[in-house]
Design goal:
Radius of gyration: 28 Å
Structural class: alpha/beta
Shape: elongated
Number of domains: 3
Number of strands: 13
Largest sheet: 6 strands, mixed
Order of helices and strands: HEEHHEHEEHEHEEEHEHEHEE
Distance between the termini: 109 Å
Length: 383
């Protein structure tokens, strides 16, 4: 009588185990984080997932072990949800992907999923991206660059950001029409895409990422105001990311008042670089009453933490009240900002149109020989 051949174990993963694996991984590849229910090129719904074994399905397979392969073949703790590319990668390069590394990848991915899906909805924030050309440079902002900066205090409320990344205008900030076009575009965008969602409660918190000429950043802040809960972020040069430092040295602001206040009031925000009085008087006249906010050593990467933004707000609010008390609420204040982008937005958010002076905001433009009048905020700003 012929000896029966040993039946090979079934490779089928029971449905409850597959469902658990999908739940634990949130439908994403546990190596590259790609969605595995959508074609990466066409975005069509398509199952590109595979259940990969950490300890091989059989002792002869990748990472197989004589005693454990059969025992753990259908154990969810020994399975990873991977896209087809990553599955082939780990099985083809067995030396580069030992069991210990695969277990670490699985543990980190599933832990991240558990934490983020367990977040209370009060910790969700909508990412707002705003960009406009600075000179001839087109600034690129993306959701993928912004999202990591929210953790662990906030979590993205949506995978699609609220984005205005430049209008169709081909003008640059050396042209007067640029300011009119971009200002109107920005105002319409905020009025149509942001304010209604804030009013309806659809947006409860904003995380603001912005790179644009400073007058437009100030306008963005003024349009949003400081009424809706929001956090403004700064693109750092070292290291090159948007993440706030957990700890930083205190940022001490220096306020300089004019000796006489009977001239045209001007506020110089000299935080990224020094600004001489001559550059201001050339524009608004020799009798200018120049108020100055600066630091001991201005530079363009000065803002490192949330505490720095908080210190800026706490300094500017009483400063604006003091300037108003000296010059009168109806007098236009000429503002010369040389600041990091986040502080420009915060300066705009601080403004209260019904309580503060109207603003005439200038932009430094080397092609036109210095500061030029760019935007007006508040009634009577151009008078």
């Amino acid at each position: 009588m012929a000896k029966k051949e040993k039946k090979a174990p079934s490779r089928d993963i029971p449905l409850p185990v597959r469902c658990a694996l999908w739940d634990m991984s949130a439908g994403r590849c546990e190596r590259c984080n790609r969605l595995v229910y959508r074609d990466p090129t066409t975005k069509e719904l398509a199952n590109i997932s595979e259940a990969a074994h950490i300890i091989g399905f059989s002792e002869d397979g990748p990472r197989g072990e004589k005693e454990l392969s059969a025992k753990l073949a259908k154990d969810v703790g020994n399975l990873m949800l991977l896209c087809r590319i990553c599955h082939r990668t780990i099985d083809t390069n067995k030396a580069a992907y030992p069991i210990s590394l695969l277990r670490q990848l699985k543990r980190e991915h599933e832990s991240r999923v558990e934490i983020q899906t367990g977040v209370d909805k009060s910790r969700f924030s909508h990412i707002l991206l705003y960009g406009a050309n600075i000179g001839d440079l087109a600034r690129r902002l993306s959701y993928d660059d912004a999202a990591p900066a929210l953790f662990p205090l906030w979590y993205p409320a949506d995978t699609t950001p609220i984005a205005l990344l430049g209008s169709s205008s081909t003008f640059r900030d050396r042209n007067d029409v640029f300011w009119r076009t971009e200002s109107e575009h920005l105002e319409n965008w905020v009025a149509q895409q942001v304010l209604p969602r804030l009013a309806s409660g659809d947006i409860r918190h904003l995380s603001i990422f912005a790179l644009a000429p400073q007058p437009l950043l100030i306008q963005l802040g003024a349009l949003l105001t400081d009424i809706p809960p929001a956090e403004v972020y700064q693109l750092h040069r070292e290291p090159p990311d948007w993440c706030w430092a957990e700890q930083s040295d205190a940022l001490e602001f220096i306020m300089e008042e004019p000796q006489r206040t009977d001239g045209v009031p001007a506020l110089v925000l000299a935080l990224s670089a020094d600004v001489t009085d001559e550059r201001i008087t050339t524009v608004v006249g020799q009798d200018a009453a120049i108020w100055r906010l600066t630091v001991e050593a201005p530079h363009n990467d000065i803002v490192k933490s949330r505490d720095h933004l908080r210190a800026f707000r706490d300094t500017v609010r009483p400063l604006m009240d003091r300037i108003k008390a000296k010059h009168g609420q109806g007098t236009p204040l000429h503002v010369f900002p040389v600041v990091p982008a986040s502080l420009a937005v915060e300066f705009g958010r601080i403004q209260m149109p019904k309580a503060h002076m109207p603003l005439c905001i200038y932009d430094q433009n080397k092609d036109r020989g210095g500061f030029i009048k760019a935007l007006k905020i508040g009634h009577g700003a151009g008078t």
